[in-house]
Amino acid sequence: MTEAAGTSGRLLNECGLPSSQVIKLLSADFSTTDDVKDMKPSELSQATGLSLKECVEVLSAAANSQHPSPVDMLQLYQEGSELPQIVTFCKALDTLLGGGIPLQAITEVSGVPGVGKTQVCLQACVSVQLPRSVGGVGGEAVYLDTEGSFTVKRLKDMAACAVHHVGTIGGVAEDISCFTIESIMKGVHYFRCQNCVEVLAVIKNIPKLMLAHPNIRLLVVDSVSFHFRHDFPDARDRAKLLRSITKELIQPAVTHKMAVLVTNHMTTHVKEKGSATLVPALGETWGHCPTLRLNLSWCGPTRVATLTKAPHCQNSSAYFQVSVGGLRDISDNTQPSTAGILQHDSPHHEPLTKKRRIIESNNR
């Protein structure tokens, strides 16, 4: 199969299309099947001047030329089972998530202001750098800050506690001397995004950034809703853009075994008869984009994390607290007794032994 230099996908002039269609496609800078594979007929028609019928023919020919190969489910399952997860330093929260924040997935954390969304993101930036010898990922993080809520001191406090606890774990076979406060701070690549254009630019630049930093295993967008809610008041335009962003996020996540962690605001949803409830922002279209959805709320003075969407875990809730060192479990005698707030500790979703050791050492 011939490929264009510097691109992937088959050349459109090799797909058996009429020369008149190929000329219009090339004139509009569409040269390979990858250039058109995610487009709708109406979009391609507007960009090239081809009729809708011709665009359907082009897209069909491009899709047929890809010759997709089937995936072996056993191999896919085994590869997924071997992937590590990013622990949160809170055993209840890790159990809720099925072992931690998963790689190759988009995890959304929503909640009201001050409930701890940014704290979850900062903790993930530290935890993703835990050495593999203690069950960590041993990676780096990219942090897109759209609201200016990133605090370097909080990151340093969490890093100091993580370094201390890793140093207290016995039986570590590998050298952990490289896991320091300085290495953790250096392993977080920070971008302050002032508008949605800058957010899109950074996301599209992730593959190039990974050429310089191939050990990146976490991408944080805090928050995904801040600019898009205001810069795109039209729900249809916003939904279309968010679908495009999801593709830009999930592709490096799957290819490079990364975790994508995004935060979202809450908005008021008015029901019939005037009743209202708080729901994650950006609408139902965005709701299909994250792989997991985690909502943070308050139960009296106690923080509650509720899993509302997950393909591999049962939806349930867990209590947690935010300490100087980051996310932590709360003691049994401080957990509120509230109907509807349940924790389901399934043995099938227990974190790995090494991960439990680092959490349990923190609680001693």
Distance between the termini: 60 Å
Give average pLDDT, whole number: 84
What Rg do the Cα atoms give?
A: 23 Å
Class by SSE composition: alpha/beta
The run of helices and strands is: HHHHHEHEEHEHHEHHEHHEEEHEEEEH
Strand portion, in percent?
Answer: 15-25%
* Major sheet strand order: 5-4-6-7-3-10-11-12-13
Folded structure, characterized:
- By secondary structure, the protein is α/β, with parallel strands linked by helices.
- 39% of the residues lie in helices and 20% in strands.
- It has 15 helices and 13 strands.
- A hairpin with a 2-residue loop joins strand 12 and strand 13 (326-328).
- Residues 1-7 and 337-353 have low confidence and may be disordered.
Which keywords apply here?
364 residues, alpha/beta, nine-stranded mixed beta sheet, two-stranded antiparallel sheet, 13 strands, 39% helix, globular, disordered N terminus
Question: Can you describe this structure in just a few lines?
Answer:
This protein is of the alpha/beta class.
